[in-house]
Specification:
Number of strands: 7
Helix content: 40-55%
Largest sheet: 7 strands, mixed
Length: 251
């Protein structure tokens, strides 16, 4: 039986291993939530794309307790952890790569924002275009897409891209040195060894299980897909090295 406390412990461990890849993760969370708050609505409707166990969703709801946050992921284990840890959140099981995923959200009107962190780079470029197009259909005019992720620019500005990567690597080295947190694979290996998570682990049919590398790692891939989907203003709100918060406004 997965208890509330055990789920919180697993998510704290998840957050720590994620920080090993981006030591300024909390700063990026804060910038993203600042942007949602800046919309000026006390009760925004927000869709968290590829929410994992709900780390961003929970922080967003802490800041804006009247918000309606719909947390979407395809991984039954991560959603299971989130449901046990954060009963105040609304989790939806859906694969963002599959047409019709927005039908599962239970929206009774347009959403104000969609948010994501370290998730959408796993989606291939054609699937990314379809996902952004479908997202645009449920966002209000002026609504935001806020995507925090590592996004590279070596296709357009290779010298700058090398500098961005160097800044990220040097910052990570300063923060952790030789004491890096456990990596993504080690976390999943530990999950597999926990009998309390065995049932959820057997159910995994996730985008995570089907990872084939960073299929849309380029900033240009996201910008092009967003423009094709009808988003107008597109730019970076926050950045450290190649770790950035991309914002797009629905036209």
């Amino acid at each position: 039986m997965l208890t509330h406390d055990a789920a919180l412990q697993w998510i704290a461990r998840w957050d720590r291993q994620q920080e090993g890849y981006l030591p300024d993760r909390e700063e990026r969370f804060t910038a993203l939530i600042d942007a949602v708050q800046a919309l000026g609505r006390p009760d925004p409707v927000v869709i968290d794309l590829g929410c994992g166990p709900g780390s961003l969703s929970a922080r967003l709801l802490d800041r804006l307790p009247d918000a309606k946050v719909i947390s979407v992921d395809a991984d039954p284990l991560l959603i299971g952890l989130g449901r046990a840890a954060y009963p105040q959140l609304t989790f939806v099981t859906a694969d963002l790569r599959t047409s019709g995923w927005t039908d599962r959200l239970g929206l009774d009107g347009p959403a104000d924002a969609a948010v994501s962190t370290t998730a959408l780079h796993w989606i291939s470029e054609p699937e990314l275009k379809g996902m952004y197009a479908e997202l645009a259909s449920v966002l209000r005019p002026g609504g935001l897409l806020l995507n925090g992720d590592h996004m590279d620019t070596d296709d357009a500005t290779p010298a700058l891209s090398r500098l961005e990567l160097a800044i990220h690597e040097l910052h990570t080295e300063r923060v952790f040195g030789a004491d890096r947190p456990e990596d993504w694979r080690s976390w999943w290996d530990a999950v597999a060894a926990d009998p309390d998570l065995a049932e959820l682990n057997r159910e995994r049919t996730t985008a995570g299980a089907g990872h084939h590398g960073s299929e849309s790692r380029l900033l240009s891939q996201h910008v092009e897909a967003l423009r094709e989907a009808g988003f107008t203003e597109i730019g970076t709100l926050w950045q450290r090295g190649n770790n950035r918060l991309l914002c797009a406004v629905r036209g």
